[in-house]
Amino acid sequence: MEPVGSGIPSRGRRDPDRKARILEAAGALIVRSGYHRVAMADIGAVGIVGSGIYRHFDSKAAILAALLQEVLDELERSVRSSATTSRSP
Questions:
Q1: Which residues of 79-88 are buried (b: 16+ CB within 10 A; e: fewer)?
Q2: 64: domain CATH number?
């Protein structure tokens, strides 16, 4: 068992940042190689075993959907921020 506060989750505990790390790794790989050339094994090669990926996402398509949702959320925040800024005196 890892010491408390080591930054490494102990067995049985989920890493709260794992999903974000999967998305970050997948996004970088997809940008570099293209969606169809990236396999789940490639995403797992960044230190997250395949079974860990499948705990968060059902498929590579689900990862792509989550990445696209992040882009849409950021775009919405940007539009709202611009709208608020343009209305300020």
A1: eeeeeeeeee
A2: 1.10.357.10
